[in-house]
Amino acid sequence: MRYLLLSDGTVYSGAPLGADADAIGEVVFNTGMTGYQEVLSDPSYAGQIVLFTYPLIGNYGINADDFESARLQAAGVVVKEACDAPSNWRSTRLLHDLLKERGLVGIQGVDTRAITKRIRSGGVAMGMITDRNPEDAFGDLRAARTYDETDFVERVTTKSPYAWGYAGFERIDEPMAEYRRRLVVLDCGLKYNILRRFAALGCRSIVLPATTPADEVLGWEPDGVLFSPGPGDPARLPTIVQTARDLLGKTPIFGICLGNQILCQALGGRTFKLKFGHRGANHPVQDLRTGKVTITSQNHGYAVDPSSLPSGLAEVTQLNVNDGTVEGIRAKDFDATSIQYHPEAAPGPWDSRPYFAEFVEKMGAGRR
Amino acid sequence: MIGSGPIVIGQAAEFDYAGTQACKSLKEEGHEVVLINSNPATIMTDWNVADALYIEPLTPEFCERVIARERPDAVLPTLGGQTGLNLATELADRGVLETYGVRLLGTPLSAIRKAEDREEFRDLMRQIKEPVPESWIIESEAQLEAVLEVVPYPCIIRPAYTLGGTGGGIANTREELWETGRKGLKLSMRSQLMVERSLLGWKEVEYEVMRDSAGNCITVCNMENLDPMGVHTGDSIVVAPSQTLSDIEYHMLRTASLKIIQALGIEGGCNVQLAVNPDSFDYYVIEVNPRVSRSSALASKATGYPIARVAAKIAVGRTLDQIDNQVTGTTKACFEPALDYCVVKIPRWPFDKFATGDRNLFTQMKATGEVMAIDRTFESALMKAIRGLEVRSKDLRHPKTQAFTDEELRHAIGKPTDERLWALVEGLRRGWGVDEVNRLSRVDRWFLRKLAKLLAVEERLLAARTGSSEAVDALVSEAFLIGFPSVSIGALLGIDDDRLDPGFRAAAKGAIEAQKVLPVFKMVDTCAGEFESATPYYYGTFEDEDDAFAVASS
């Protein structure tokens, strides 16, 4: 018997999945019906136990190509049913086997809808997956550092610079081809598909540790700088926010997800924690410039407070149709734009891919 | 509003459902609705649905008289199935709409023509770089004769502008193409048909998409056919959402579907059918229904997203972000439903009434109805759907296929009929293995493995007859959980079989009656529990928590 404990004292019992160990993290739910491999390898899920609301997970197995980083990043996984007989032409292994090999702890056979509803009404909570007697395990859960108090970016960022081009990783000092643009990415918890999308548009990405200072960033002579998505409370990142502030006006700046929250803070804005966040592939976002709505892939637990943005300096360009939260901003004077959702998808809809082209175009304009 | 007319083979009551929703939706918007329908045995012809009702033949002549008398501002033809669409096309061609100054709401006729005319559609697909299978447009017997030598066999014959693919079929030889092709030409409203490269054995996947006049596009859901290409989707067992597509494949096909609806300029709902190679990223666009269709009715019920209601509002100019999601009451219609359950549809064929009818299924639809079941697992949804069919079989047992010789069974697995599901099961029961049954049927291994899982429970129930009665309790619970109904569990355990030990039979009966696991009711809420819901509906399942709440008794 395996248990999922929530910090409010609730216990759910199910069957083991993946590695046999204890896992502690913030329990969040994702409503996407596909994309479990991408989600579990997305660094933005570091420190979180991910519950999939779709009950049948693992149906198309695990393949070699759909990882979004070099590791499994989530702290744990909760499913109704993990498929033990997947079917897809690219599938090479079972979800369970991957989790076991990479040491990721999961639980299956629980009423995921009941847990989702609890999170919806009570907000996200710390949780623990364990095989131990729940009474004994609760002490560890209560003693554990909470998600909001933990710095995750430093854990997931690259330790050393690397480059990404048409064919993926390449030597940083030796471009494999001619590229149209050079982008510097500050890696706060990057997904490979962001680099793939830029490469598809002729950009070479230089990926740097998140805490690289502004002068060092500029030393790479970028056509633009991207602040990447990533995990944790954006308010805990003053160093990176300072980097963004230092870069304002010196090079075109883009932000995705956490990158949006970093840029907003650099402009003087503040963030706040959402009750249970936005995680899934069906979030409608309206572009205020065109009135058009697109369906986006989202994964964030914090949002930007629009009233905190200095008027005249930054302008909200996109809003979430469901709850009206900020989904994109622009600081015209500084040639800086950012969006809260994931145009790179993986997983999720491809509708907002054009933003990459928009970014790349801006990089051209900024060229000396 | 043009209604759906008679319920015929190939067109069941789904358009009544759509039309009724649309009438209500238009009245909500403050419009007065005049309905013409030839079929009084429908919900939409109930007194309170439309403001004025004409039960008249659905012909251009009668329609014109209704228009002359009522002088409506507009006609909405895209919610009454192919009948309504064809009628509106004729009214426009005859100049009736122009004479009376009647606007055509919803998708423009030009877009409908582009989607329905095989050649225009293929041209459009080429323009937007969406792949279509190699095909030949035939508009005369001479043209048909000319291609007999050219096309690869087997090939598919699809007449244009017909209901449920009437007159279509698969041709394995020149002779068959000549025969079926000639028939198809006669049946097509415009004497047009298409002969197409066969994609037999490819996965068939559908997307239900919506678009408003501002160009906002969403997918309501996608569906994967258990039966691979070659069977009309109305005759296929269908699951929602797709089960064997990875995220990239899901969104590659979703992107293609949205690109198509955008290029066609549909205003309302539309169904896109795609054939997907089971061994690569290759796919082909098969066809598009530029209107609310049978699949839309299924997608509506499967997700809680009221496609017809929203399509009607789009037709009168509202955009998706302005329309409320009635189920949650707090979000908008501009989103994509997230399911936290599995939906299985099985068609209901009338072969019990047409005992001598040809039970073979191909591209012309033969089903007269369908059942849809919802549950948290595929296994239990499938078992529910089988029971809902109200055929003799209540589970996976099927005396007819079980009596087949191996040769007969091989044939039954390979050639789709209304009984193929049980033939697949029987192949597995005989120990042929998932790979062999997949080779014969091209049904994806995922589905076959699920059938094998159910079968394993069936076998253990049968085996329990000779075992000890102690293990029966746990086994009965397990059988309930995976979806076996009590009547099947009882029969498999042999509770009415006099030859078995009375002690065992009593214990088994007791275990079933004492059913340890009790069902709860979960919501279909369009959002997988993310938001609270004002007016959801429910399905029964074996889980921990009940979403249903007691209504206070007065």
Which structural class matches the secondary elements of chain A? alpha/beta
Helix content of chain A: 10-25%
Distance between the termini of chain B: 41 Å
What average pLDDT do the residues of chain A reach?
Answer: 96
CATH domain topology of the domain at 203-348 in chain B: D-amino Acid Aminotransferase, Chain A, domain 1
Biggest sheet details of chain A? 11 strands, mixed
- Tell me roughly what share of residues is in helical segments of chain B: 25-40%
- Number of DSSP E strands of chain B: 17
Count up the helices of chain A: 10
Q: Using only CA atoms, what is the Rg of chain A? A: 20 Å
Count of individual beta strands of chain A = 20
Number of domains of chain A: 2
Short characterization:
The complex is a heterodimer of chains A (368) and B (554). Chain A has 368 residues and is an alpha/beta fold. Chain A has ten helices and 20 strands.
